[in-house]
UniProtKB/TrEMBL annotation:
GO cellular component: cytoplasm; membrane; myosin complex
Segments of this protein annotated with the region Actin-binding: 494-516
Keyword Nucleotide-binding tagged: yes
InterPro entries: Kinesin_motor_dom_sf (IPR036961), Myosin_head_motor_dom-like (IPR001609), P-loop_NTPase (IPR027417)
Domain of life (superkingdom): Eukaryota
Pfam families: Myosin_head
Name of the molecule in the record: Myosin motor domain-containing protein
Transmembrane domains' residue ranges: none
Residue span, Myosin motor domain: 1-624
CDD domains for this protein: MYSc (cd00124)
Cited SUPFAM superfamilies: P-loop containing nucleoside triphosphate hydrolases
Length: 1057
């Protein structure tokens, strides 16, 4: 059911709960719930079964109410099936399906469509409710020739809103053409017409709106200019139009002030002097004439025609200024329509017909309604009356002409406004209704040097021709003329329009505005319901439903429903019954069978009339039932015939089949024998051919002959092969690809050898090895060449490192030089390296001696190396090289000697117990038990190669078991604990201080901590800790001595070092 709603007018609802006390709970379509008395719910309009159907014709609704009509309109709106802009669409359709002949270089259809941009630019404007509102009425009469092709068009305009030129409602705009001109006019013409921006003109900036969303004024100006060209407007004509438009804008900037004396006169203010000059320039009129025409008024007084000039005050002068602007624009708009008609309304040689398209303003109700709204609404009333007269009266006339009884149906006329009461403000009615222009302004305009302005303000006697003269006027030569007001002109135009409309078959398109906010996808239910009411839609549907909503011609009804009568179809086909008699008997039979009531149908003179949609549905049901009965009869007869035919012909057909099968079997047996013979011969011949080809291919494959394999494979092309041949051909193709690949690789390898392309040779050698070519001479040569080049580059890189830093690779420099000579490195480079080596060879010997002393903890060798290093440093002249000579080795040697001095001092002061305790603490850091003797220690050097190797084995053991085995090997070698302690300390010193052997000391902080290492510390931590421990020996074990003894011991230790 439908329930009234304050916002949406009507909403679908359903009863969800019947509450005690006579109330019912209803759920609305938007999810809200309301509680209403049950008796009110029972009176509500029902939705009907057609609520969710797509109804093209609202007359077909089974439940007719305001809510159902509004619901289907809303449904169409949400499905984008409603359009509010139709006039242009109708013209597009007409010009598309009936495009006419050619006028000049352009078709009439093109020119008709191009007239829209011009007329819309000059006659449309933005209003509060529409961004492109038509502010004039337009009747377009499209003419068609005998071939039903467009041959011309005539346009009649109605009531242009001239007051919009000088004043607009807030947030509305003036006519589009002003903004388009300012946005897109040519720069040179802009400068000539003294045009700037929209904010500089009073007629454009007062409303507070100069832009329209989604409207590009510059682009629209280009479209308008193209339309002018299509309509054959000359360049001078369009230039004159822009002169007039610019003059109107400059006129609006004219302001007036009092003369300053006691008179009521006025003059143009000093601030408007520049604007006055621009007006005179664009209209090509003297400035004095313009100022005189705007500030004074000339009239004729007395019976003798005395001329009286009255000066105007500033207010009256301003009104005169606006009158001039409106006159210029209104006359130019009328001239544009006449000019377009001259192009479109071409005379046709033969008889013509026409289709008229009326695009006129809709009913307008504003807060302030003036003379323009009165005229607009009056025109809508006339059109609404025509709609009522056509829809309702034509309906009754049709019933009368068909001889069908009808009820006395009444409808509401529009004696009052059909849209409701409207309040009009009569202030200014007389001035707006008076469409006359001051004689002073007319005289001034006729002095213009602009051709278009002269045309617009021609005298009446200049356009009347020679029909007027002294004798054709009343006595005294005076000519009485009655001034025709805007209202009377508009009324005459409407009367003429109604005559045209009544002479045609009208079709009405009702444009429904969905909301006042110009917002998409917003449906204002109450607004749309009011529009549907005012359009008379409910009355039209009501009378159709009260009468006969379905009308079907006799022929169509007879063809469709003759089957529901008895033998009607055959009687009609034999010409015994007319179509009207067939329709009557069919309906009478349906009535007798209970499918339709007698009062719901009538047979007219040419049509059959049905009241409800259900009546047609019931007739369709009856027709389906009759069709099913006839189909059953036809099926039974057909089945009888089929069975009878099978029974009587079964034996004969069986005998025929058996004889045919026997003959076919014999024929097939002979044919099969022949085919088998032929096929076996073919197979033998084919196999012998395949075997020959296979043998040839295998011979070529065994020889690995690329041409032979290619030739043998080509013989198989286009031949149907056996499975054996396919496998051999596949193997041959694989071998051929392998041979070609090997050939390509060997060729590329030779090129790489010539270029010494090492990356290329490496890649090609790997590919050759994959293909089994590794033992070929070229491949072996390439592999040896790559190896030699790599060795050569490695040796060369090491020698370069040596030249950059003579400490790098210095131990192996002799071997590197021999390798360089063997590998063919440039002798000059080798000689340069050899010179450097010979220069530093003595220093290398000294460094080697120092390193061996540190690594084996040999004091005598260390002292010998230190002395030699000192002597060498004294001989060197370069101070920087002196400081860097054996720097790391000297530091390491000094620290080892320092540790030995500490050890000797501690042993002398504290005995073996203190040293034992110190050793135990060091062992606790290493987490390793040691039992080592000194049986294998050489005299002078604490660490031999064997002891060092065993200690390395303990330190680097990967598993716990291997570490224990290495410890047992040490215990087996030495069993003296005191000697073991010395060895442990010496191994630690040698490992920590020999930085050249352990490069990880240079990045000790990146070596992960591993508690299973021999030291239990990082190399850098061990190094730092050993220094700290050595520096703290005297403090910890020599605290009992006096300061003097400490000093003597320190001096003695220095002497020993």
């Amino acid at each position: 059911m439908f329930i009234q709603d304050d916002v949406e007018a009507w909403q679908p609802a359903r009863v969800v709960k019947q509450e005690p006390g006579g109330n019912a709970t209803l759920e609305l379509s938007d999810g809200r719930s309301v509680v209403m008395p049950s008796d009110e719910v029972a009176k509500m309009d029902q939705c009907g079964v057609s609520m969710n159907l797509d109804m093209e014709n609202l007359v077909d609704l089974d439940a007719f109410s305001e809510g159902s009509i509004l619901h289907h309109v809303r449904k169409r709106f949400m499905e984008d099936k409603i359009y509010t802009y139709t006039a242009k669409k109708v013209l597009q359709y007409l010009t598309e399906v009936a495009g006419g002949g050619v006028s000049g270089t352009k078709t009439i259809a093109d020119q008709i469509m191009e007239s829209n941009p011009v007329l819309e630019a000059f006659g449309n404007a933005k209003t509060l409710r529409n961004n492109n509102s038509s502010r004039f009425g337009k009747w377009m009469e499209v003419n068609f020739n005998q071939a039903n092709k467009i041959c011309g068009c005539r346009i009649v305009n109605y009531l242009l809103e001239k007051s919009r030129v000088v004043q607009q409602t807030p947030m509305e705009r003036n006519y589009h053409v002003f903004y388009m001109m300012l946005a897109g006019i040519d720069p040179s013409l802009r400068s000539k017409l003294h045009l700037t921006s929209t904010d500089d003109y009073t007629y454009l900036n007062k409303s507070g709106c100069t832009m329209v969303p989604n409207l590009d004024d510059e682009e629209e100006f280009k479209i308008m200019n193209e339309a002018f060209k299509t309509l054959d407007f000359s360049t001078s004509e369009t230039t004159d139009i822009y002169h007039v438009l610019a003059a109107i804008l400059h006129i609006g900037n004219l302001n007036f002030e009092s003369m300053g004396d006691d008179s009521d006169g006025s003059k143009i203010s000093a601030s408007s002097a520049a604007s006055l000059k621009k007006v005179a320039s664009t209209l090509q009129v003297r400035q004095e004439d313009i100022e005189s025409a705007l500030t004074s008024k000339t009239s004729t007084a007395g019976g003798r025609g005395s001329i009286v000039t009255v000066k105007l005050n500033p207010t009256s002068a301003t009104a005169m200024r606006d009158a001039l602007a409106k006159a210029l624009y209104g006359k130019m708009f009328d001239w544009l329509v006449v000019r377009v008609n001259d192009i479109l309304n071409k005379p046709s040689p033969g008889p013509t017909s026409h289709i008229g398209v009326l695009d006129i303003f809709g009913f307008e109700v504003f807060k302030h309604n003036s003379f323009e709204q009165l005229c607009i609404n009056y025109a809508n009333e006339k059109l609404q009356f025509h709609f009522n007269d056509f829809i309702f009266n034509e309906e009754l006339k049709m019933y009368k002409s068909e001889g069908v009884p009808y009820e006395n149906i009444t409808f509401k006329d529009n004696g009052d406004h059909f849209a409701g009461g409207v309040e009009y403000d009569a202030d200014g009615f007389m001035e707006k209704n008076n469409d006359t222009t001051s004689d002073t302004l007319l005289s001034m305009a006729r002095t213009s040097g602009l051709g278009l302005v002269k045309k617009l303000f021609k005298r009446d006697d200049e356009t009347a021709g020679s029909g007027a003269g002294p004798r054709g006027t009343p006595r005294g030569g005076r000519k009485s003329k009655k001034i025709q007001t805007i209202g009377s002109q508009f009324n005459n135009q409407l009367d003429s329009l109604m005559v045209s409309l009544r002479a045609t078959m009208p079709h009405f398109i009702r444009c429904v505005k969905s909301n006042h906010d110009k917002a998409p996808l917003k449906f204002d239910g109450r607004l749309c319901l009011d529009q549907l009411k005012y359009a008379g839609l409910f009355e039209a549907i009501r009378i159709r439903k009260a009468g006969y909503s379905y009308r079907i011609p006799h022929m169509a009804f007879a063809r469709r429903f003759a089957i529901i009568g008895n033998n009607l179809l055959s009687l009609h086909n034999n010409g015994k019954l007319q179509e009207s008699q067939v329709c009557l008997r069919a309906l009478e039979n349906a009535t007798e069978c209970g499918y339709i009531e007698r009062g719901n149908w009538e047979v007219g003179k040419t049509k059959v009339f049905l009241k409800e949609a259900n009546d047609k549905t019931h007739l369709e049901d009856f027709r389906i039932t009759r069709c099913q009965d006839m189909a059953t009869r036809i099926a039974s007869v057909f089945r009888m015939f089929r069975v009878r035919k099978e029974v009587f012909k079964d034996k004969f057909e069986k005998a025929q089949r058996e004889a045919k099968i026997k003959a076919e079997n014999a024929k097939n047996g002979n044919a099969a024998t022949l085919l088998q013979t032929m096929f076996r011969g073919h197979c033998i011949r084919k196999r012998s051919t395949d075997l020959k080809l296979i043998v040839q291919l295998k011979i070529a494959m065994s020889d690995e002959s690329e041409p032979g394999i290619t030739d043998a494979l080509s013989r198989f092309e286009g031949v149907r092969m056996s499975s054996l041949a396919e496998s051999v051909v596949y193997a041959g193709k694989q071998l051929l690809r392998s041979i070609q690949e090997r050939r390509k690789i060997l060729h590329s390898l030779r090129l790489a050898l010539d270029r010494e392309d090492v990356p290329g040779m490496i890649e090609l050698v790997e590919r050759a090895s994959i293909l089994g070519l590794g033992e070929l001479e070229d491949v072996r040569a390439a592999r040896d060449r790559v190896k030699k080049i790599k060795e050569k580059r490695a040796v060369h890189r090491k020698l370069l490192d040596f030249l950059a830093d003579d400490t790098r690779h210095s131990e192996s420099i002799i071997q590197l030089l021999d390798d360089a000579r063997y590998l063919g490195i440039d002798e000059r480079f080798i000689a340069k390296v050899d010179v450097v080596y010979r220069d530093i060879a003595p220093r290398l010997d000294i460094r080697s001696k120092l390193r061996r002393g540190v690594e084996t903890v040999d004091p005598s060798l260390i002292m010998e190396g230190m002395n030699a290093a000192e002597e060498m440093a004294n001989k060197m002249e370069d101070s920087s090289r002196i400081q860097g000579f054996c720097g790391a080795e000297k530091v390491a040697a000094a620290r080892v000697m320092k540790m030995l001095g500490f050890e000797e001092e501690l042993m002398r002061q504290s005995g073996s117990a203190s040293l034992r305790r110190l050793t135990t603490e060091w062992d606790s850091d290493s987490n390793v038990d040691h039992e080592v003797g000194r049986a294998d220690c050489a005299e002078g050097a604490r660490l031999s190669g064997t002891v060092t190797a065993l200690c390395d084995a303990v330190s680097r053991a990967p598993t716990e078991q291997q570490r224990r085995d290495a410890v047992r090997n040490l215990e087996a070698l030495v069993d003296d604990r005191r000697a073991l302690d010395k060895v442990i300390r010496s191994y630690k010193w040698g490992r920590v201080y020999s930085a050249w052997k352990f490069p990880e000391l240079n990045a000790g902080d990146t070596v992960p901590f591993d508690p299973e290492l021999f030291f239990g510390l990082r190399p850098l931590d061990a190094y730092t800790r050993s220094l700290f421990t050595a520096d703290s020996f005297l403090e910890e074990y020599g605290g009992a001595q006096g300061e003097e003894e400490k000093k003597e011991e320190a001096e003695r230790s220095v002497d020993q070092r």
